[in-house]
Specification:
With 512 residues, this protein is mostly helical. The chain contains 24 helices and 11 strands. Helix 10 crosses helix 11.
């Protein structure tokens, strides 16, 4: 934390920081936490409002087990939050726990431990005078605290959890018992499977309810949950350009309606504000600006690129999108929706998109769709344009490349038996995934191509991707170093032509 500590000190030393932190977007606070480490940010977290904390936890505690998967509550990350709270003054930590969503805290604690009423697990003497042993707790770490028996589910985090709960009992015994007695109901052992179970147990149902609540809150903020994002992208790969205009996508319609409502809510002005309030606001704005300048200096916050403005750099050819945006004031909101779709529902280079990458990919795909808009479809629409571009990327780049590679591998013969086995394994896997419509799932098997041609390997990784891109190997005569990340997004038909021209030479490149 030696590199991040000066940033925390600078922020905490800013005049009026206790008024500034509550005005910062939770996303900004999250960037500070990511950069500095959660353990270094306790004093900043202590200044956040309950609403900020809820949104901050919605961002920080939930992660998909794989790219494009549904987010789940991360038990390890929740334990780190408990460790951070344990370092605070006990009364401050109790206040932070009280400010958090109770259901989230209970769900997170239920992932860490089981809780039983002390009397329910103790041995006792029957009316006949026979001593009966209490509940067997096994080898898991356990202790008694406040008349309750705590049993660890995750021994690695046991000390931190018990340490915080011990402080909480001393600082706020009412909150301590309210939280832990709620965990009691989630502490039963898992049901024995009989092949007929279709009902979730209490803990599974509670986690499902937490996920639904979080998705509902994020829907109102313009985020798109992974499941509808995947559904939107899958449907967008199959647009018939020769047929009638496709029907309105219901996922896009619902999300854009939520975005419009959220925007209207933010623009609502309190008519009862006074000049004194305005003066106070200008002082607060100046303080917030000072903090934001610190974050810009640290590289945590960067001004957004104006991809759609006339003064934007022309290094990325987005002429069709810029022309459309100039006549449609709603273009930015639609692009925000499409960016969130890519962030939630799509992998890029075998990992999640970054926000900057998702913004570039959404803009490039829309530009490609607008270039190929059928005249018979009438007035242009940015969501439909994205679907057109997404179909072209899938059909004319990803599928075309995968099918060509599958044919080339059939005739490819190597004297190296291990390499030949790897190539044929790749061919069989590719054939299977082509039938499923997911050729990008062979990404790891493409390593077999690396032994034949490093440039071809990097180019194939980019082209046979869920979001196809052009690798520098397609346009450069000679690369001194093959970097799989040296890719650019497909923005126009000319880029597709470059990709298909290279694919046409794939057989000779791999055989030579």
């Amino acid at each position: 934390m030696s590199e991040s500590q000066p940033l925390v000190v600078r922020l905490l030393g800013t005049t009026g920081i206790e008024q500034v932190v509550p005005r910062l977007a939770p996303e900004v606070l999250h960037r500070v936490i990511e950069h500095c480490g959660l353990d270094a940010c306790g004093d900043i977290v202590a200044l956040a409002t309950p609403a900020q904390l809820q949104r901050l936890l919605d961002i920080d505690l939930w992660h998909p087990p794989a790219s494009g998967g549904d987010d789940v509550l991360d038990a390890d990350r929740f334990a780190e939050w408990l460790e951070m709270l344990a370092e605070m003054d006990p009364h401050v930590a109790a206040g932070r726990l009280a400010a958090m969503d109770t259901e989230v805290v209970v769900g997170g604690l239920a992932q860490q431990l089981r809780v039983f009423d002390g009397a329910s697990v103790s041995g006792y003497v029957t009316l006949e005078g026979e001593w009966l042993e209490g509940r067997q707790l096994g080898d898991a770490p356990h202790c008694e605290l406040g008349g309750l028996v705590l049993v660890s589910r995750r021994p690695r985090t046991w000390d931190a959890v018990v340490g915080l709960l011990t402080q909480l009992q001393a600082a706020d015994s009412i909150l301590f018992h309210r939280l832990l007695r709620a965990v009691i109901g989630l502490s039963d052992d898992a049901r024995e499977s009989d092949g007929c179970d279709v009902i979730l147990d209490d803990r599974e149902q509670q986690m499902r309810d937490l996920a639904i609540g979080r998705d509902t809150r994020r829907d109102r903020e313009g985020y798109v949950a992974p499941a509808p994002a995947r559904a939107f992208l899958e449907a967008a790969r199959d647009i018939g350009l020769d047929g009638p205009r496709p029907a309105v996508d219901m996922v896009a319609l619902a999300c854009l309606r939520d975005l419009a409502q959220a925007s209207a809510d933010r623009e609502t002005v309190d008519p009862g504000s006074s000049p004194d309030d305005a003066a106070g606001s200008s002082e607060e704005v100046a303080r917030v600006t000072a903090v934001m300048e610190i974050l810009v200096d640290e590289g945590l916050v960067t001004p957004p690129r104006a991809l759609l403005t006339a003064g934007a750099p022309e290094s990325v050819p987005l002429e069709h999108l810029r022309a459309f945006a100039a006549s449609d004031p709603g273009a930015e909101a639609v692009l925000a929706f499409l960016v969130n779709v890519l962030l939630s529902g799509c992998a890029f280079n075998g990992r999640p998109f970054t926000p900057r990458e998702a913004a570039d990919a959404a803009a490039a795909t829309c530009n490609l769709g607008l270039e190929n808009w059928p005249d018979a479809w009438g007035a242009r629409d940015l969501v439909v344009a994205f679907r057109i571009g997404w179909t072209l990327l899938f059909r004319d780049v990803c599928l075309h490349t995968a099918r060509t590679l599958h044919d080339v591998l059939r005739d490819l013969d190597s004297p190296d038996r291990d390499l030949q086995w790897s190539l044929q394994t790749l061919r069989h896997a590719l054939g299977r995934e082509l039938q499923r419509g997911t050729p990008w799932h062979v990404r790891e098997s493409l390593d077999a191509i690396l032994s034949l041609d490093a440039c071809a390997w990097a180019a194939l990784l980019a082209l046979v991707d869920e979001c196809p891109t052009l690798h520098a190997a397609l346009t450069s005569q000679r690369l001194l170093r093959v970097d799989p990340a040296a890719v650019s997004f497909v923005t126009r038909n000319a880029d597709i032509a470059v990709a298909r021209a290279w694919v046409a030479t794939l057989g000779s490149a791999l055989q030579g």
